[in-house]
Structure formats: structure tokens, C-alpha cells
Amino acid sequence: MYEKIIKADLGADVRIIDLRTDTLSRPTQEMKEAMYIADLGDDVYGEDPTVTELERRSAELLGKEDALFLVSGTMANLITIMVQCSHRGSEIISGDKGHTCCLEQGGPAQIAGVQSSPIKNEDDGTFSLDVLREAINVNPNVFEPKTSLIIVENTHNLCGGVVLPLDWLEKVGDIAAEHNIPVHMDGARLINAAVYLRVSPKRVARDVDTVFFSLSKGLGCPVGAVLAGSNDFITKARRVRKVLGGGWRQAGVLAAAGLVALDTMIDRTKIDHEHALKIAKAIHQMKSNIFKVDLAKVQTNIILMYIDRSKVDLKQLQRRLQTVLDGDSVRASVRCSSLKSNCVRFVLYYEITAEDVQLACDKIQLVIKEYDEIFSLKNVIPQFK
Ligand SMILES: Cc1ncc(COP(=O)(O)O)c(C=O)c1O
């Protein structure tokens, strides 16, 4: 319905290419069929066979003892924090661009009563190991919080879908082990990381104690995330899930889509990565002084296009990408998001076809050319409607 309204506004020949985020992906036909015939029970009693199967297979995929099916990644992070930081006066160390730190409404403080003590994220999603060592405090004095959890994010969303190096993860694991602190991986897009590195998801998660991956992003499911860890951790997590209102009954309807995702959607994410690189290269090719992309950082399904803020108004740029003017040679409306003030983000997922990608490249190049031409002629801000 919504799409129909936009189409009517734009003209029937216009293709809408929505690259705001991969959560826009809708379930495949195979998922819908599996959901329809799923074997169901009450999952709060541990009696939904489809959920149990998804949890068993996810634990195996991630190389952990057990797993828990949840409504969202935000809940996976929050539950982990509540389990691992159950002593009052706890702190979490994570990167300062981490999702838990920036994009979860301060859930650790708001709900778990835990302090976030972020350290600077590097552009590659890592943080300095020396700074981490310095920040850890497991023997606090009467004034200080006690470090109870370290969180890493893989792939890293705000850093543009970059993949954490395996040797860095190993070192984080070693430092944490020295101090007996658990490490949690926010692996909303862990599958993309594994596909990029050409290793198993289990290998990516090897050096962390707990990890979750999202089903509802690049894997295309309607809802869901799976959190994995030791038997003891998952028993505690199951209890916390209930108090947060996350105990769901015949959740096998959703888990059925997750099982299809595990069978059919993992390897194909490399197509999204190829699509992202194609768009990035199209931006790079323009050699614009106003729009930049760092090709080395386009590793998975996310592209950050940096803009010269003195010349481009972000909202105006987004509007221009979305609008198709009468004389435009490219009949595509491209939507993107802006999580930071100096760039826009394009995210690929399975419903974005090769044809869409070509059109998106053409449209983005058309808009870049317009800005470049205007600024090469006169130093004024272009006035798009
Ligand atoms: C890195 C990361 N972690 C956690 C989340 C939260 O996942 P959800 O939207 O399922 O709550 C997201 C969502 O985009 C994310 O990108």
C-alpha cells in the first residue's frame, strides 16, 4: 500500500530501491511455506519442536553449548548484559560506536542498571588493546565500577559493515581471560563477517563467550535473533528473557523461517557483498571532491558515502536521491539512511536484484554529477526541490 502511494507520486515507471537497511528484507516464499506448516508447541515450556531445532542448529553453527531464540538483537544484547553484569556497580567496556552504546536507548543503564564505559572505536571496528588493558578494572576501590563484560561488534554497523580481524579477536579473548571477564559478540551481521572471511561462523565466534546473530537482517527472516553461549549462560538468559516479556509461545511459526534461512540464505550473502562493492566502485569512479567512499572498508553489505558537509545538506541529498525529476534519464528512486552527520548509508539485501543495483549506481552517479557540476561552476548550494 505504502509503496503504491510512493509509486503514484513518482510515476508508474519509477523503480523504488530501498537501501536504508537490511531489516527491510521480507521473508522468502520458502520461508512463508515453512511457517505455514511448522510443527508448534509452547516454547515457554520448552515444547516447541521448531524453536528447539533452530536453537540446536544455531548452537552448532556458532560452536557453543546451547542457544536461545529471541525477538531481536537488542534483546540479545540486553539479556547478555543482565546475565553477565548481575552484580550492582558493574560496567561494560565496548567501542564508543557500538550498537549497545549508541543505538539501544541506553538499555544497559535504563533497564540493566549497568554503566557503559566506552573506549574509542577505530575505523575498522576494533579498539586499541592497550587502551582496553588500561580500562579494565576487576579490583575496584570503593569509588569505582567493576568491569564485568567486554562487547565487540562484528560486522561493525556504524563503521560501515567492516569485519573484525580474527587475530584481534583472539587477543581480546586472551586479555579478557587474564582478568576472567566474559566477552560478548554483537554479531547481528556475523554471517556476513564469516562469508567475507571465508570461514565458518563458529570460527568467527571462537574467542568470545557469548554471541548472537540476527535472522531478520541479511538472512531475510521476518523476526528474530539467536543468542548462544554455555549451558549455564543460556539457562540464566532464558530466565531473564521471561522477565523482559520475551517468553513467546508458539514461536515455531517464526523459527521455521530461521531454519530455512540457515539452509538457504547464508552463502548467498556474498551476492550482497558484490552488489555493495559495485555501488561503492560507481561512487569512487566519479572522482568527486564532494562524495567519497573508502573502497577498502566496503567489505560486506554496507556502504558509507562520505560527503563534504560544507557543500551538501544531508536531508537534501537524501531527497534528491529519492526524487525522479521530469528530465531525469534514470527512473529510480534510491532511499538511504543517515546514521552519522557526515555520510549516508546504503545497505544491500537479497531482494535488491542486480538490475536494482545497476539502476542505483546510475542514479547515485547522476546525483553526484549534478553536485560536482554545480560546484565546478559556482560556489553555491544547489537548490533541489
Ligand atoms: C550491530 C547491531 N546490533 C544490534 C542490532 C539490533 O538488532 P534488532 O534490530 O534486532 O534489535 C542492530 C540492528 O540494526 C545492529 O546493527
CATH class of the largest domain: Alpha Beta
Radius of gyration: 22 Å
What is the chain-wise order of helices and strands? HEHHEHEHHEHEHEHHEEHHHEEHEEEH
Task: Count the beta strands.
Answer: 13
Distinct small-molecule ligands in the complex = pyridoxal-5'-phosphate
- The second-level CATH architecture of the largest domain is 3-Layer(aba) Sandwich
Biggest sheet overview: 7 strands, mixed
**Count, helices:** 15
The helix content is 40-55%
Adjacency order of strands in the biggest sheet: 2-8-7-6-5-3-4
Plain-language structure description:
The chain has helices at residues 2-10, 29-37, 49-62, 73-84, 99-102, 107-110, 129-135, 166-179, 190-197, 201-204, 231-243, 252-264, 269-285, 314-322, 354-377; strands spanning 15-18, 66-70, 90-94, 115-116, 146-153, 183-187, 210-214, 225-229, 291-292, 302-307, 332-335, 337-340, 343-347. The protein has a seven-stranded mixed sheet, with helices on both faces. Strands 9-10-13-12 form a four-stranded antiparallel sheet. Helix 2 (29-37) packs across helix 12, helix 3 runs parallel beside helix 12 (252-264) and helix 13 packs parallel to helix 15. It folds into two domains: 29-264, Aspartate Aminotransferase, domain 2, CATH 3.40.640.10; 268-377, Alpha-Beta Complex (Aspartate Aminotransferase, domain 1), CATH 3.90.1150.10. The protein is built from 15 helices and 13 strands. It is globular and about 65 Å long. Helix 8 (166-179) links the parallel strand 5 and strand 6 (183-187). By secondary structure, the chain is of the alpha/beta class. Pyridoxal-5'-phosphate binds at residues 72-74, 99, 153, 157, 186, 188, 214, 216, 225.
